[in-house]
């Protein structure tokens, strides 16, 4: 990025970067700015996700394109995996943090069908339906990382897990973060107000609030989560084995983002715009969620249920 909150370089160089759908609408609906859309983005009926991307997967049906089929399949399979994790979580009735982890998995599950649609090159770029679904997706992602952070907080047993003291703040902050991010995303695309929406110069593809909620906030929440969890495992439980799962989850998550940002265009070019790095990112993100489940199961099993907890 050239400046904090800029999306121009990301939308051009990272295939299937979902939030670019919001900026495409912003440009296409303004007759004075629509000329900015060039190359594969010039025709909304076939345009891929992104704003003037150097490589992108054309919309399904355009020149025989099947859309972002690899990520569509992976999202569908990931939904099955997450359902399995939710069922396994529910079976551990006496485990600490069961309700909170179930909520985290449920939010992640909900993000997957939205991801399937918003970066699957299925809907016409600039359409109201795509914008609304992308805005909801952004709000869900921001909420997901609050759910992740909430799991770390409850692991310290500051409040009793599954109680109103735990769940009431959880749902209140879910509502606030979801609603705030949804408003920001819709404002960027539709220009309802200039309070939290795009910059004064839409050509810049800049929105600091959107960048904070979809990029900076997830990073901060993830760092705090792993710091707190390592403190709980090593400092409170004084165990080493579960640490491995959380370290693996962190490493896999980092790799998922590196694949998306650094290898996405490479994969897109080499496949001649058939697939990009988004499907690998989804695989790795779901794997990271699986490691989080294994870590939670490890710290809530056996004698630990009867000692610290």
TrEMBL record:
InterPro entries: Chs7
GO biological process, one term: protein folding
GO terms of molecular function: unfolded protein binding
GO cellular component: endoplasmic reticulum membrane
Annotated Pfam families: Chs7
UniProt keyword annotations, A-Z: Membrane, Transmembrane, Transmembrane helix
Ranges annotated as spanning the membrane: 69-89, 101-117, 129-149, 170-196, 216-237, 244-267, 279-299
Protein name per Swiss-Prot or TrEMBL: Chitin synthase III catalytic subunit
Annotated organism of origin: Lentinula raphanica
């Amino acid at each position: 990025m050239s400046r904090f909150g800029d999306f121009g370089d990301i939308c051009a160089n990272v295939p299937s970067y979902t939030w670019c759908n919001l900026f495409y609408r912003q440009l296409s609906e303004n007759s004075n700015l629509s000329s900015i859309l060039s190359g594969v983005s010039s025709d909304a009926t076939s345009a891929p996700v992104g704003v003037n991307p150097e490589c992108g997967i054309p919309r399904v049906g355009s020149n025989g394109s099947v859309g972002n089929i690899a990520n569509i399949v992976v999202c569908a399979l990931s939904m099955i995996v997450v359902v399995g994790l939710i069922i396994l979580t529910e079976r551990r009735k006496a485990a600490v943090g069961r309700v909170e982890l179930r909520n985290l998995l449920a939010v992640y599950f909900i993000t997957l069908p939205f991801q399937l649609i918003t970066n699957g090159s299925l809907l016409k770029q600039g359409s109201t339906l795509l914008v609304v679904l992308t805005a909801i997706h952004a709000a869900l992602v921001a909420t997901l990382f609050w759910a992740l952070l909430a799991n770390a907080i409850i692991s310290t047993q500051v409040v009793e897990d599954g109680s109103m003291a735990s769940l009431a703040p959880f749902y209140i902050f879910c509502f606030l973060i979801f609603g705030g991010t949804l408003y920001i995303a819709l404002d960027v695309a539709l220009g309802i107000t200039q309070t939290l929406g795009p910059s004064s110069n839409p050509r810049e593809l800049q929105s600091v609030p959107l960048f904070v909620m979809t990029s900076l906030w997830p990073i901060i929440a993830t760092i705090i989560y792993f710091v707190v969890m390592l403190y709980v495992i090593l400092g409170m439980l004084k165990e080493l084995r579960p640490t491995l799962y959380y370290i693996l989850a962190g490493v896999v998550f980092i790799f998922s983002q590196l694949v998306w940002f650094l290898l996405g265009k490479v994969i897109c070019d080499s496949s001649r715009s058939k697939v990009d790095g988004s499907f690998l990112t989804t695989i790795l993100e779901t794997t990271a969620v699986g490691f989080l489940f294994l870590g939670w199961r490890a710290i809530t099993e056996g004698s630990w249920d009867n000692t610290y907890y």
